[in-house]
Amino acid sequence: MPFRKGSNQKSRYVPLRTKFIVLFCLLITIPFLVIGTISYRKYTAGVERSTVELSNQVVSQISINLEHYIKELDRLTLAPLYDEDMMQILRKHRGAGPASTYLTTDETLKMNLFISSLAFDRGEIESILVFTNDGGIFSNLDQSVRKRWDRSMAEWMETIEQEDGGLAILPPHTAAYYTEPKQGVISVARVIREPYTHAMLGIVKVDLMPRGFGSIVSTVRSSGSGLLQITGKDQVVLYSGAGRLPDSRESYITASAESSYTGLKVTSLIPRAQLREDARELTNSTLVVSIVALMAAYTAAILLSSRLIKPIAHLQSKMRQVKRGLFLERATVTTSDEIGQLTEGFNTMIGEIDRLVKEVYETRLKEREAELLALQSQIHPHFLYNTLEMVNMLALQGNTRELSGVVTSLGKLLRYTVGHREQMVYVLDEVRFVEAYLRIQGMRLGDKLQAVIHIDSSFDYCVVPKLILQPLIENVIEHAMGQDRLHLTLTASAREEDLILSVKDDGLGITAGRMLELEEQLYGRQPRAAADAEQGGFGRILKGFALRNVHQRLRLLYGEPYGLTLDNTAERGVTVSLRLPMNWEAMNNTGPAGDRQEEA
Q1: What residues form the membrane-spanning segments (predicted)?
Q2: Which of 137, 144, 230, 489 is the most exposed, having the fewest neighbouring CB atoms within 10 Å of its CB?
Q3: Which residues make beta-bridge pairs with 186?
Q4: Is 453 helix (H, G, I), strand (E, B) or coil?
Q5: How far apart are CA 189 and CA 161, in angstroms?
Q6: DSSP code, position 99
């Protein structure tokens, strides 16, 4: 059994040249990958640190600008408190619910003129509106704003009232008081109260255009495609510089600043992928150098490995020739190093194997062939004497037809055993030989022997050893026959990939003691010389040695687990079975042996 260190499974074959090439490539590739990875990470980390510092400065400046802007809006919303005419108008309409006094033209003119002065030269302001308690609206946009309002148009009012007169920054909401309601409006507003009684007189509200916050942050821009956001209370997004929200699938570098005065938080988000573009350029340059170096290494590896592997490949080719049985092959020694010494050892080993094959293997094959021929060609004259006496008796009695049948069957037997020299025959040949043998025994034994052959024609051309069935039939006649009629059955069957030939009888059977003796003779280690001295031949059975011969022939030809088995478990008789491989290989001459003999 070959010994392989480690697992019993055969390892995958990898040529030695491939191993050298892979080794060279790894020795060059790994350092480049390590250096490139370290350089890439350090460069990226430095860029990120610089970007974070710059982003912190940017958002701080934007936060300061935004705080100044909100303070200006704060002062703008306080302007009505310093205009007496405007306060008088608001006091007139301070009653809650539907107005008892409608807005007069004079009131509208004064309020709109005052409001327009506040919105002058402020392009980022959509409109400035003053809401009275009784549902009136004053605005600098006289045509596009409704004249009346109610609570259904002012879901944002609760937030303003909660500030109790302070400035309220409203997140994006719907402005339903326009003739065409607007979505996503951002506003600042406050409640206008009576200076002394603090009674609510109305609300001043400033709606910013979508570019309102953009005009503030445009003075300070973040680098590249960074995203700038302004969020209010509860992290509500008031402004997004790119008009979109951050992608949750992308990684960002963030910097933020929050104003204690306004409560607004400015956040800058810069995609890491953008910062890595420069690092990718450095990586690509390194990759180009690596590829050039690798190609040079591949070329050197191929040239060097070819020179190194050539004598090994030559030795390998000779080993393949020897594997096919050409023991005269010798490898040429081209070097004096370890490979040369290995080649010399190979030549010496093959020479010794060639000598051993000739002295041992071929000798053993001839010995086995001679043994097989001896086992199958044995014939004892006792059977011929008995048959000739029966022929003489039939001749004296004048039974010419029966005499002709006996002589014909005897001729077939002699021709099959003596004239037919093939070692392997078809099942059909063996069956015809057994039929001829049974005809002769039937003439001698009469009604005491009844034989039946049940072999399907599908097994006719299965190849079996010659004279493998007749010894079993003869063994039954010699040892199983008593005073009663003997029934003998010959059958064939298939078991997986094997052929099973069985001879069953209902004769005297085998005792337990005799069974042990037979098993010892069949499967025991009795010396060959003693066995040959006692064995019988065709026409003569001595002490079960015919069974031993059959078993030995099958073991010599096919090895284990093939051979002969005995079964005496039935109530009467014994079943002898032969197991041999199912072989459909064609014979040298087509057709059954009987046909070939007749043609000869």
Answers
A1: 20-40
A2: 144
A3: 208
A4: strand
A5: 10
A6: -
CB 69 within 8 A of CB 77: no
Q: Which of 544, 398, 388 minimizes the C-alpha distance to 480?
A: 544
pLDDT of the residue at 500: 94
For residue 335, is pLDDT > 80?
A: no
Q: For the segment 112-170, what is each residue's pLDDT rounded down to a tens digit?
A: 888 888 888 777 788 888 988 888 888 888 788 888 888 777 788 888 888 877 888 88
Of the candidates 405, 379, 406, the one whose C-alpha atom is nearest the C-alpha of residue 390 is: 406
Residue pair 442/479 in contact by the 8 Å Cβ criterion: no
Residue 254, φ and ψ in degrees, nearest 5: -115, 150
Provide the edge-to-edge strand list for the sheet that holds 265-271. 237-240, 227-231, 265-271, 252-258
Contacts of 431 (CB under 8 A, 6+ apart): 453, 455, 460, 469, 490
Give phi and psi for 266, each to the nearest 5. Answer: -105, 125
User: Which of 360, 318, 312, 356 shows the shortest CA–CA distance to 338?
Assistant: 312
Q: Where are the beta strands (DSSP E) in 259-308?
A: 265-271
Helix (H, G, I), strand (E, B) or coil at 429: helix
- In total, the chain counts a number of residues equal to 600
What one-character-per-residue DSSP string does 168-200 give? EEEEEEEETTBSS-EEEEEEEEEEEE-TTT--E
Which residues fall within 8 angstroms of residue 596, CB to CB, at 6 or more apart? 420, 589
CA atoms within 13 A on the CB side of 549: 31
Euclidean distance between CA atoms 589 and 389, whole angstroms: 36
CB 238 within 8 A of CB 186: yes
For residue 442, give every residue at least 6 positions away whose Cβ sits within 8 Å of its Cβ, in sequence order, or none. Answer: 449, 451
CA atoms within 13 Å, Cβ hemisphere of 85: 10
Which residue, among 67, 148, 66, 71, has the nearest Cα to 103 in the 3D structure?
Answer: 148
Distance CA 224, CA 211 (A): 20
